[in-house]
Each structure stands twice: as C-alpha cells, then as structure tokens.
Design brief:
By secondary structure, this protein is mainly alpha-helical. It is built from four helices and no strands. Helix 1 packs across helix 3. The N and C termini lie far apart (61 Å).
C-alpha cells in the first residue's frame, strides 16, 4: 500500500502510529514515503515533549518527575540518511526540519536531565573508595 502513488488512509496511519510509531516511520522510509516519515517523526518528537502524547501511544512525556520516554534515534538516522541521498529541494527542507526538531529535543533533554539531577540531589550516594 505504501508503494502506491497515494498516501495511506488517515485512519490506518492513526492506528499504526498509536500502536507502533517506530515501525510506521521505518515502513514509510522503506517505501520512499519520506515526507510522511518525517511528518510522523516530528510528531513523535513533539509527543515526547508533551504535545498529543496519546496520539502516539505514549503514557507520559519527557518530564523530570516521570520515567524516561523511548526515542527511536536509529529510525530517525535512517530517514536522515535517505533524505541526504536525495537531491531535490523538498528533501533538503525535510532534512532541515527533522534535524531542527531533533536538536530542539536534545536541548529539552539536557534541561530535563539537569532538573532531574537537581530534584534527586539528596538521593545521590557518594562513594569515596
């Protein structure tokens, strides 16, 4: 279905991204539907940051008081490699958009990690051996 010249139905994508976002992004990339893969990847990054978490099957978002949230960086890398191999302007724009979102996420991850360290500073055990 993904190799066809049209996009999959909305209801199918909604179901797939809720159940297995990583696999859905990988499938889109595999069938050269890179625009859709980037859209899903950016949406997932946003969900991890706290926007529309339920749409991507996440029970929580990235916060210093909650457990960590999984990010499929290897799938993002695969999409970026495929985009970099393309020569059209559209792919270059998608590449920049995804890289910008990943960098924004990494900045957020740094802040949350610092907050987590600060909140748990009393729980740290120092060993002088």
């Amino acid at each position: 279905m993904l190799s066809a010249p049209y996009t999959p139905p909305y209801w199918l994508l909604k179901l797939c991204k809720t159940v297995n976002t990583e696999g859905t992004i990988r499938l889109c990339a595999q069938y050269d539907s890179l625009h859709l893969a980037v859209k899903l990847a950016i949406g997932y990054i946003g969900a991890v940051a706290g926007r529309e978490t339920g749409d991507y099957g996440l029970s929580n978002s990235l916060q210093s008081t909650l457990p960590p949230v999984y990010m499929p960086y290897t799938v993002f890398d695969q999409v970026l490699v495929q985009l970099k191999q393309k020569t059209d302007k559209s792919s270059a724009g998608l590449y920049r958009d995804l890289v910008d979102q990943i960098n924004t996420h990494l900045d957020l991850l740094d802040r949350v990690s610092e907050d987590n360290t600060f909140l748990n500073r009393d729980k740290l055990v120092y060993s002088f051996t």
